[in-house]
Amino acid sequence: MKFTEKLISASRANNSLVCVGLDSDLKKLPDCLKNLDDPVSEFNSGIISSTSSHVCAYKLNLAFYEALGKRGWDILEKTLAQIPENIITIADAKRGDIGNTSDLYARAFFETFNFDAITVNPFLGYDSVQPFLEYKDKGIFILTLTSNPGSRDYQYLEIEGKPLYMKTVEKILKWNVNENCGLVVGATHPDELSEIRFKADKLPLLIPGIGAQGGDLEATIKSGCNRHGELALINLSRAVIYASNKEDYAEKAGLAALDYKNKINNIREPFFKL
Ligand code: NUP
Whose CA is nearest to atom 3 of ligand 1? Predict the structure, then answer.
């Protein structure tokens, strides 16, 4: 099944555009988990069981697992095994290297860990992205305009009369021969988000920046969805997983995910006439 079809089916099954980011930081876990052998897996398991009927995807940022050393890789595997089959899994790994190395990154995340999608950094150009593109049924989300303040350092620079982020969109549209590309665009840039969506009208957008980073939800939904009110993955990490730091952390995360799902649907249903 093509990645986009799997994404649409996951999103329709739970009527949700919410992607929960499992950015589980050992230092921020509730005290009640701290004496367990494997607190991060326990935490993730609680979050997944309370949120899985309100989301279409989970995004696991590799930094949070790599920081734990070899245990981190086991936790990653254990966590993936708990995610229901129909829900999309994204490795937020931001990889990209010379071709033969990217080949191994693609193998690691798509074959060894069997993620449905990955985030890729396009700075090294086509040959660094190409090995990922070979996996026709996986999703390749390419950094286009990031949510952080430093996005202004390079991503707006004008090249041949266009900002670099629009040049990136044009490249991605050319690279999309297997129809498996997506774009990462921060919710902190709503005007640019709508310009990007207009140009890449059929591609899925992974949109971080809502919640802790202060992006505007209404503007993000209206400019980030396609014309059917779909194909936008609204990532929420801290705003959902740390909704409570007490024993009710899982329950509160479930309520936060449900609340975002409803808020998003209340914006998109009338606007896109769903
Ligand atoms: O442009 C980006 N901004 C961003 O925040 C691209 C990303 N991949 N992210 C990631 O999304 C970031 O690394 C983190 O994993 C998540 C946002 O987390 P939060 O702000 O919702 O807690």
Answer: 147
In the chain, which ranges are E strands? 18-21, 57-61, 88-95, 117-120, 139-145, 158-159, 162-163, 181-185, 205-207, 232-236
Summarised one tens digit per residue, pLDDT across range 175-214 is 999 999 999 999 999 999 999 999 999 999 999 999 999 9
**CA pair distance 112, 45, nearest whole angstrom:** 21
For the stretch 65-110, pLDDT in tens is 999 999 999 999 999 999 999 999 999 999 999 999 999 999 999 9
Q: List pocket residues of ligand 1, CB cut-off 6 Å.
A: 21, 23, 61, 92, 119, 146-148, 184, 186, 208-209, 211-213, 235-239
Beta pairing partners, 158: 163
Rounded (10°) angle between helices 190-199 and 164-175: 30
pTM of this prediction exceeds 0.85:
yes
Asked whether 55 and 20 are in contact (CB, 8 A), the reply is yes
Backbone dihedral region of 229: left (phi > 0), alpha (psi from -120 to 50 degrees) or beta? left
Evaluate whether 224 touches 193 at the Cβ level (below 8 Å). yes
Active site residue 70: no
Q: 244 — alpha (psi -120 to 50), left (phi > 0) or beta?
A: beta
